[in-house]
Amino acid sequence: MKRSDISLPSRVISVILPALFFSLSFLQAPKTGLPLLYAQSQAPPSAASLDPAITAAMTEAAQTFEQSDFPGALESLKKLYAEHPNLAPPQIVMAQWYAQSNLGEAVRASLEMATEETPNDPEAYLLLGEILLRQNYVTAAEAMLKTAESRLNEYT
């Protein structure tokens, strides 16, 4: 049986998904205050709008990542985050880079580490919930999304 042959239970389609999208429409993106769905559709700030030192450090970490030195890139991001805690957590950035590099298992592992390293930041829970939902792990996805929502209410 192909994965595409598996259909979600009608309960998910009729109850959980509309409730999820309704809830997400009111969530605010961490650190921006914009509605989450709106914030995700917007382009990130240009490099010119960031502090040149931050831009240089991010570029260096990205280059380290591109050389497949993942631990080195993560260490650079952790140092940068320690100095600038308003930036995205290091494991979230790594997950984004892994996703762009088509390293799916690393994405999930990085997000799971993010929940341990920055447990109050809702973004990792939200992204893990989305991954689990796409993989048809509906119950686990629902739990992860509820955790994201509760963290978002506490997040400053």
Give an overview in words.
It contains eight helices and no strands. The protein starts with 9 loop residues before the first helix and ends with a helix. By secondary structure, the chain is an all-alpha fold.
Main sheet summary: none
Structural class: mainly alpha
Number of helices: 8
Strand content: under 5%
Write out key terms for the chains shown.
156 residues, disordered N terminus
Which SSEs are present, and which pair or pack?
Elements: H1 10-26, H2 36-41, H3 52-66, H4 70-83, H5 90-100, H6 104-117, H7 123-134, H8 138-154
Helix pairs in contact: 1-8, 3-4, 4-5, 5-6, 6-7, 7-8
Question: What is the structure about, briefly put?
Answer:
This protein is mainly alpha-helical and 156 residues long. The protein is built from eight helices and no strands.
